[in-house]
TrEMBL record:
It comes from Sphingomonas piscis. The keyword Ribonucleoprotein applies. GO terms for molecular function: 4 iron, 4 sulfur cluster binding; aspartic acid methylthiotransferase activity; metal ion binding; protein methylthiotransferase activity. SMART domains: Elp3 (SM00729). Catalyzes the methylthiolation of an aspartic acid residue of ribosomal protein uS12. Belongs to the methylthiotransferase family. RimO subfamily. This is Ribosomal protein uS12 methylthiotransferase RimO. One of its GO terms (cellular component) is ribosome.
Length: 441
């Protein structure tokens, strides 16, 4: 038995030693993935040109190198410092396959994967294209950024992970495509602040599938939705532009589900938390969202017992929750975290008061949840199957309103013929505070 030939990559590295190190890292990654290196243009399936843009003369040298690679091979990917001047490169060489900037190892390697795919072979491809996953095979988390620009008083994420650093939209979409090709049916979009996606990239656009995609939450959500899997948005701060995502939910491109960490409702507590205190306007927007997309499910989390939280503040929160009628709610008792500014605030709430307030929040939100789920009895809902018990014929899944691990479930009877990852219509027969019960329609 003969093994398939691995694709060969040619590499032209220009500029300073830092560029050379970048080239070495790219080459190391490609070799570890099974690619071979070519010493000449003729033997390469694709050629990488790592450019320098420090001086005008260096830019001209880089453009000449790109031109030579195109003339000798024709399949060229450009990376390095001149990647910031993509328009200049494309105006002169419109047939370049892809252009990435300096240090963008993930993007340039991804471009090689697209231009010269590794032939499938169990002896060569020890890791699937979708990567190794700790989640079930039918759903996957999709991280779109790291870090956060907020400085909430109770949080130390920026000190741990830094400021917002968004991934390029084409790299995210490329990963999503590979996940779906591997059998993923549901993409759970995560970050520290999904609504802020692309702010650090100045919402620039990148080439994608013959067009362009902008580094912006709404554009990315639409592009992900067009790939055909369920797309669920987590950690969405209620910025004004979130309103433009709701029509995508009404269209069926994105699941009608928003995970929004409100944290509290009292203006006094929100100010102490260093979070926007516009709870009244949020209620108006929730009503507007439900008018556009009646099936939208909103989940959130709240902190009780934050330093300085009075009984009036807590009562305000309860009244707000009653009016907001959120579908899924999680609550947390405030805990000091080393390094958090909230530790130094006055008015720390006694533990027994935290416990009492926590219990009251959970009692209220459980009642609201039970009422909203009871209203679904008799309806038909789409459910993604998570597990099947062939012995009992039962199955467990989730509706579009339920994220894994944190929300409710749908328990099915007469479902032994189903498999994990199936998406089926289910007639809802019963409900409790958190879960639905039904049968395949």
């Amino acid at each position: 038995m003969s093994l398939p030939q691995a694709p060969k990559v040619g590499l032209v590295s220009l500029g300073c030693p830092k560029n050379l190190v970048d080239s070495e890292r790219i080459m190391t990654k490609l070799r570890s993935d099974g690619y071979s290196m070519s010493a000449d243009y003729a033997g390469a399936d694709v050629v990488l040109v790592n450019t320098c843009g420090f001086l005008d003369s260096a830019k001209e040298e880089s453009l000449e190198a790109i031109g030579e690679a195109i003339a000798e091979n024709g399949r060229v990917i450009v990376t390095g410092c001149m990647g910031k001047e993509a328009d200049v490169i494309r105006n002169r060489f419109p047939n370049v396959l892809a252009i990435t900037g300096a240090h963008q190892y993930e993007e340039v390697v991804g471009a090689v994967y697209d231009a010269a795919p590794m032939p499938p072979n169990a002896f060569i491809n020890l890791v699937p294209d979708s990567g190794l996953k700790l989640t079930p095979r039918h759903y996957s988390y999709l991280k779109i950024s790291e870090g956060c620009n907020h400085r909430c008083a109770f949080c130390i994420i920026p000190s741990l992970r830094g400021d917002l650093a968004s991934r390029r939209p084409d790299a995210i979409l490329r990963e999503a495509e590979k996940l779906i090709a591997a059998g993923i049916k549901e993409l759970l979009v995560i970050s520290q602040d999904t609504s802020a996606y692309g702010v650090d990239l100045k919402h620039a656009s990148w080439r994608w599938k013959g067009g362009e995609v902008r580094a912006h939450m709404t554009d990315l959500a639409r592009a992900l939705g067009e790939l055909g899997a369920w797309v669920r948005l987590h950690y969405v701060y209620p910025y004004p532009h979130v309103d433009r995502v709701i029509p995508l939910m009404a269209e069926g491109l994105v699941l009608p589900y928003l995970d929004i960490p409100f944290q509290h409702a009292s203006p006094n507590v929100l100010r102490a938390m260093r979070r926007p205190a516009n709870e009244a306007k949020v209620l108006e927007r929730i009503r507007s969202w439900r008018e556009i997309c009646p099936d939208i499910a909103i989940r959130s989390s709240f902190v009780v017992g934050f330093p300085g939280e009075t009984e009036e503040d807590f009562d305000y929160l309860l009244r707000w929750l009653e009016e907001a009628q959120l579908d899924r709610v999680g609550a947390f008792r405030f805990e000091p975290v080393e390094g958090a500014a909230a530790n130094n605030l006055p008015g720390h709430v006694p533990e027994e008061v935290k416990e009492e307030r926590y219990a009251r929040v959970m009692e209220l939100t459980a009642r609201i949840s039970a009422e909203k789920l009871a209203a679904k009895v008799g309806r038909t809902v789409d459910v993604i199957i998570d597990a099947v018990d062939p012995d009992t014929g039962g199955a467990t899944g989730r509706s579009k309103a339920d994220a894994p691990e944190i929300d409710g479930e749908v328990h099915l009877r007469d479902a032994g013929h189903l498999a994990a990852g199936d998406i089926v219509e289910v007639t809802v027969e019963d409900a409790d505070e958190h879960d639905l019960y039904g049968v395949p329609a």
